Amino acid sequence: MRSRGKRILVVDDELSIQRILRRNLLMSGYEVLVADNGEEALNAVRQHEPDLILLDLCLPGSIDGLEVCEQVRRQSQVPIIVLSARTEEKQKVRALDLGADDYLTKPFSNAELLARVRACLRRAASGGGGRQQEEAQVLRSSDGYLVMDVERRYVRAGDREVRLTPTEFELLRQLMLHAGKVLTHRTLLRAVWGPEYGEEADYLRVYVRQLRRKVEQEPSRPRYILTEPGVGYVFQADGRRDQQPTAASSVSNVAPAEE
């Protein structure tokens, strides 16, 4: 752990945005690196090992922001915050699919930027955002199909080991820890992403889809990570589809949002 400020890589080809981001981050005590394009960004990640990346999706040259995100995720779990325009919704969702941790829609305030940066760095430092807990260190579905060793950060689905990003790991941990209880969108967002969050339900949709792809036998017909329409998600420990709760029958099991 470096004693100096965390190192942040800003990847954007607009000089005005580079200057604003660099100035605001420096004033907040961060060390700042800047890359103008995808190739420079990938070189900077290899050479300087930043603690966080602010990544614009629209970059000049042959390597765009999506490819940067994809290549970085092959070698590192460094947090990535995507900077996107309002017209780039599909690219933004694709970036989250590829492993980005968060996004900011331009234009954004300095306060919002710094809050997201702090939240991402905090999650990375804690290995995914979870509280230090006295809870069980090994979580499993009742049929033994899904097993999570929290301390070893190991997940097994059936007879195969599953590699999860820190955010995916913490989301699955929260669901398994409260098996059988419907966790609201707000509760999950605050537990996994931090207290700055609560309304970004699209994060959950993307990450739940990713989790299902990785741990469910049939992602399109999930047995364990179930949707409670309009409310949130629930982990079904026995993997029986015919026991999916309904909002009417499981009100008493809904975990309250943390204030």
Which features does this protein show?
Arc Repressor Mutant, subunit A; transcription regulation; DNA-binding; alpha/beta; 2 domains; Rossmann fold; 259 residues
Summarize the structure.
This protein is α/β, with parallel strands linked by helices and 259 residues long. 37% of the residues lie in helices and 19% in strands.
What does this structure look like?
The chain has 259 residues and is of the alpha/beta class. It folds into two domains: 119 residues, Response regulator (Rossmann fold, 3-Layer(aba) Sandwich); 116 residues, Orthogonal Bundle (Arc Repressor Mutant, subunit A), CATH 1.10.10. It is 37% helix and 19% strand. The protein has eight helices and twelve strands. The strands form three sheets. Strands 2-1-3-4-5 form a five-stranded parallel β-sheet, with helices on both faces. The protein has a four-stranded antiparallel β-sheet with strand order 6-7-8-9, covered by helices on one side. The two termini are 32 Å apart.
Note the main sheet.
5 strands, parallel
Rough outline: elongated
Supply the CATH architecture of the largest domain.
3-Layer(aba) Sandwich
For the largest sheet, list the strands in their spatial order: 2-1-3-4-5
Beta-strand content bin:
15-25%
State the share of residues found in helices, binned by percent: 25-40%
What is the number of strand segments?
12
Helix count? 8
Computed CA radius of gyration, to the nearest angstrom:
19 Å
Q: On the 0-100 scale, what is the average pLDDT?
A: 84
Which H/E pattern describes the elements? EHEHEHEHEHEEEEHEHHEE
Kindly name the structural category: alpha/beta
Spatial separation of the terminal alpha carbons: 32 Å
Number of domains: 2
CATH class of the largest domain: Alpha Beta
Q: What's the CATH topology name of the largest domain?
A: Rossmann fold
| Residue runs with pLDDT of under 50 for 5 or more positions | 129-134, 243-254
CATH superfamily caption of the largest domain: Response regulator
Pfam family, one: Trans_reg_C
Protein name: DNA-binding response regulator
Modified residues (4-aspartylphosphate): 56
DNA-binding region: 136-237
